[in-house]
Each structure stands twice: as C-alpha cells, then as structure tokens.
Amino acid sequence: MVTSPLEQHPQPDHAAAVVSVSLDDAHRFSKPAASRIRLLEGLGVEGDAHAGVTVRHRYHVKKDPTAPNLTQVHLIPAELFDELAHRGFTVRPGEHGENVTTRGIDLTALPRGTRLHLGADAVVALTGLRNPCSLINGYQGGLMKQLIDTDADGRITRKAGVMSVVASGGTVEAGDTIRIELPEGERVPLDVV
After folding, report:
1. How many beta carbons lie within 10 A of that of residue 36, not counting itself?
2. pTM over 0.85
3. What pLDDT does 127 receive?
4. What are the chain's domains?
5. Distances (CA, A) of 115 to 147, 167, 189
6. What is residue 14's predicted lDDT score, i.e. its pLDDT?
7. What is the pLDDT of residues 26-60, one digit of tens each?
8. What is the dihedral of CA 166, 168, 171, 177, to 10 degrees?
9. Start and end of every MOSC domain (predicted)?
10. Mean pLDDT value across residues 159-170
11. Taking the CB of residue 74, how many other CB atoms lie within 10 A of it?
C-alpha cells in the first residue's frame, strides 16, 4: 500500500526538525556547520556561495548564467546518513554541501511547491531534487552509487536531497521545528533541477 506524503510524515509528538545548518562562502563540496543561518527572501542563505537571484551552481552557470536560481537552499534528511552508515559510509551534516539537515520528513516524497516553515519565520519552497554529481565519489569512493537507485517499478530515484528557494526570510538553527505546507491543486512530483 502506498501512502500519501501527508501520511508518511510524523505526528505532532514526533515533530519534524532541523538537525543542523551549514554555509560556505566558496564553492567547495562540503559546507561547515554554523550555529545559525539567515535566509534572505528570493536569494538564499546569507553569505553562502549559492545565494543569488540567478544560478550560482558552477555547472548551471556554464549552461545559462541568466537562469533563475532554483537551488538557493539545499536540504538533506539525516535519515539518509543513517542509511549510509549501515552501508559503511560516514557522512555528517554539511558534508554533502547541504544548508539544512532535517529529521522526520521524507523530503523527496513531497511535491514541487511544498513550503517548509523552518523555525519561527523562514519559509522555503521546494523546486526539485538535487542530482548527485561525480564529485561525491571523490569525497568517498562508491558513494554516488548509494545515492542513485532504481525503485521496484524501474524508475531512477535520487537520494541527494532537495533544492528550494526562499519564500520568506528568517533565521534557522538546529532544533527548530519544521511545518509542512503542501501546495494546492495538482501535486507534481519533484524532478531534477
């Protein structure tokens, strides 16, 4: 039986939360943990190399530097790190370049346009899936194969987290609760951005 994204999410006594936040002012694979980050509406994480109205990811800049930045904030579930640990890999928050590490949400099951309320004020809108790149194998050999899989129906699944844009600014820190606001109308699955 397949459950809807709402049914897959924890009940209020197991609230979804921010585990860690990270940022880096340069384009490096990993981002160091921070005590808090500040999200700027329409831009991304203040002081992060990927913040901006237009694309900042080096691969996307080469294709079209004027394209809108749909990858302002990268989120990864801590449950992925748990899964990887069972397979012999050690990954800590920020080491895959994410800005926000979460717990209690199946991020990749959410539809495009889902708004995640992070803490008191910040809101991000999901734009798509992160496509893992070959740099991941440079970080830990064989890791990329763990992040791209095929489901029972033969569809490729990506587990490298989700990308988002900042819909409302605010400060985010470890321990903040996360509230999920699903989009109205048709629910479109996340695709690679």
Report:
1. 13
2. yes
3. 98
4. 14-181 (2.40.33.20)
5. 24, 8, 14
6. 62
7. 999 899 999 999 999 999 999 999 999 999 987 87
8. -90
9. 32-181
10. 97
11. 24
Residues in CB range of 34: below 8 A, 6 or more apart: 21, 22, 23
Q: How far apart are CA 8 and CA 46, in angstroms?
A: 32
Q: How far is CA 57 from CA 29, 72, 133, 192, in A?
A: 11, 9, 12, 14
Report residue 120 as tokens. 């008191």
pLDDT tens digits, 81-139 = 999 999 999 999 999 999 999 999 999 999 999 999 999 999 999 999 998 877 777 78
CB of 98 within 8 A of CB of 163?
Answer: no
- Amino acid found at 132: P
Q: Determine contact, residues 147/159, Cβ cutoff 8 Å.
A: yes
* Residues 40 and 169: beta-carbon distance below 8 Å: yes
CA of 53: how far to CAs of 3, 26, 72, 192, in Å?
36, 17, 8, 19
Mean pLDDT calculated for residue range 77-82: 97
Residue showing tokens 């590490």: 101
User: Which residues are CB-contacts of 1 (< 8 A; sequence separation ≥ 6)?
Assistant: none
Map residue 148 onto helix, strand or coil. strand
**What integer best gives the mean pLDDT of the chain?**
90
Place of tokens 């924890």: 10
